[in-house]
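Forum: Protein Structure Q&A
Topic: Joint prediction for protein chains with partners

I've read a bunch of threads here and the consensus seems to be that you should model interacting components together rather than docking separate models afterwards. I'd like to see that in practice. Below is the full input, 759 residues plus whatever partners are listed. Could one of the regulars post the assembled result?
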Amino acid sequence: MDQLLYASEVVVNGLMTGVMYALVALGFVLIYKASGVFNYAQGVLALFAALTLIGIQQGQVPFAHLISAVTGMHLDSFGWTVPSLLAILLTALVMVGLAILIEALVLKHLVGQEPIILFMATIGLAYFLEGLGDLMWGASVKSLDVGLPQGLSETVETMTDSLFGYGFFIDRLDIWATVIAAVLVASLVAFSQYTKQGRAMRAVADDHQAALSVGISLRFIWVMVWSIAGFVALVAGIMWGTKSGVQFSLSLIALKALPVLMLGGFTSIPGAIVGGLIIGVGEKLFEFYIGPMVGGATENWFAYVLALLFLVFRPQGLFGERIIERV
Amino acid sequence: MKKRNIRLFAAFATATALAAPAALADLVVPNFSYRTGPYAANGAPYADGFNDYFTLLNERDGGVGGQKIAVPECETSYNTEKGVECYESLKGQNPVVIAPVSTGIAYQLIPKVSADKIPMYTPGFGRTSAQDGRVFEWVFNAPTNYWDGASIAIKYLLDEHGGDLNGKNIALLYHNSAFGKEPIRTLQELSKKHGFKLTEIPVDPGSSQEQKSQWLQIRREKPDHVILYGWGVMNPAAIQEAANTRYPLDQMIGIWWSGTEVDVMAAGAGANGYKAMAFHGSGRDYPLYDDLKTHVFDKGLASQGGPHIGTVLYSRGMHSAMVTAEAIRKAQELAGTDAVTAAQVRDGFEALDISDERLAELGLSGFSPAIKTSCEDHGGSGMALVQQWDASAKTWNPITDFYEPDNDVVDALIRADSEAFAKENNITLRCD
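Posted by a regular:
Agreed with the consensus. Here's the joint model:
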């Protein structure tokens, strides 16, 4: 009985963790859907967004180290702090600005190039943004607090204890992440289905040339999609940054999104969520039951094994578009 | 066209200046730093402390024994391949010592430095059994190592439990890498000796930020203590999860690589009470800082502008530089010349005698235990203390004196490991 209760706790926590993975995967899906580009820089976008948010919140002077090295002036802080909500809005604006710059300086020049060229460009972008983030805000670990609660949910613990005689652990931050992810996905689906810009985005995703021929601006769509992906990265950065602080390893969360994408499909927003949930539960259950027999630490590789197993039966992922090539 | 030429010349001049090797008369002590990548938050303070100590010696004393010390930095990103590339590129500058600041890089460089006859210094990291100077002629890891650390954690817990750990459950939460696996063998031996149950819980480096499985296991099994051998983001994530699952932080004790400001700041008040070992002090309350202020900080020469001065990792970088400088000084004394070679510095490392009096002369009284090495012993005393994090004051406070390791257990394990290495590599034991 105890084992069953423990396994149930693992499943619930796996689902919650899956939502956190899906938050990262969503950014990849958006850009891939609209431009066919696998955005290698998505993890770094989340890092950059989180660093910028803290910088704005704490009134940190950007490029302080560079200013100090060039002028000798030590200007670390403006001396003010910005309320969390306003700081999030300002960071979202920065991400829009970044999207405009990426389109103007990188993507515009690569129109019509092979997807692999665009992919390579995003690798360069990832390294550039990582360096820029370091130069702007410094490399030290930062604590991120936007008022989200964190830690054991006593309500859930008490409730499950009275029901089953064992109090489940659920992190309140994970509950919030689930709510936020649900709102985000609903908004994104509504946007892509019911707005003019959303339909234009889908048209571009279907066929660039055809979309251009009916007057859709490819440049506008790319800026819009990168802005939305930047906002999704900001949300992912807030959730993961609140969880374990903001530091440069935050960009590695992208690695957890890859099996989610393989499983859910690169072009489906609901697929990112379902993929995240399956990966989250699958890796946690495998670690719980099989981990002790093989020395543990199975989650990193098992997520990929699980994704590959699904790919054997559905190469396009669970919700991906079926590729039909006629010879 | 003229402007373009000027720009080209400026770019060339800058590139030349940046790539310029050390002046011929300088002794070269490279800084294998990692200021970028996932471990940048840990690498930057260490590199700054290392740089600033040598800047002080150059500015105040004109170097060591009149020889200026050149400290070329090479960025490794804490990546083993890049670290080896750094070694290969710096070798041409005739470094007198190599200090790679990474266990992975250190393992790769052991055969290389042995062949190239350059001493390698790995304080508190690297291959533990390199302490055996009979086998590892070119490697030094004084003042302590991972196995010493594991035994000191157990000694401390023995003291906490009135000398009896029989029947207790102690979990080892470790980075699933060469570094994290180092203490396992020692803890297994100690569990037999003291009768505690050892629960090994690995955390994959790629999943360090997400430790829910591990902490659900800890919540279920309720170990009496958790020993943490983590690095990088694994540490703040573990401490945050401990706080989230309400595991008592004062029952957690980290190795020195899990006991820095970087590890506890993200968890805020939740990290209060967390303990970790240290083999040196931190903070600015040492007379050496007066000299650093006068000759380095006030002149605007602090590495990277000095954002990390006095932190644990800055102090560790400074400690490494101090021991290296003392080895060079000893080498100069033994060789009767100031312009010592790498081989002579190796001799200096092997004859180190940094007594408490010497530490006081250096302005570092009480900063670390005395260090004495010999042909057989490249590891020093192995001592470390336990410190505790005060989240409100944001300081690490020592709560014990320096502990000696359990030499009965550790020495036997080191000998077994190093002799096996010697046999595998056809190395004849030295020091007879």
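Chain A touches chain B through 53 residues (CB under 8 Å).
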